[in-house]
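The protein record quoted for completeness.
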Amino acid sequence: MDVVISGEIETEQDGLAYGAMVFKVAPGTTTEPHRHASEETWAVQSGAGYCLVDGERIGLIPGSRVVAPPHSEHTITNDGPEDLVVLSMWWKKL
C-alpha cells in the first residue's frame, strides 16, 4: 500500500471539529490531490519529500511543519528512499 493511515481519519462524521492521524507515504509515491474545509497542519516525523499547497512546492524533512489553509488543494510526495512519516492535525472554526 502506498499510503498507510493510523488514527482518526474522519472525525467530522462523529460531530467533532478536529482530528489527528499519522500517515506514511511510501518512496516514489504521492498522496491524491484533495481539499477540505478544515485547516491542516503537518509535522514530519521521518523521511523526506515535498508537498504542494495550492501549487506552492515546500520541501519536507524531519522537523518540518507545514500549514495547508482551508480549501487549499494539497498533496505530499515522497522522493526519498524510506517511508515519509507525517503527523497531521486539523480543525475547523465552528
Q: What stands out?
A: The chain has a mean pLDDT of 86. Strands lie at 3-7, 18-25, 39-46, 49-53, 56-60, 65-68, 74-77, 84-91. The first strand starts at residue 3 and ends at 7. The radius of gyration is 13 Å.
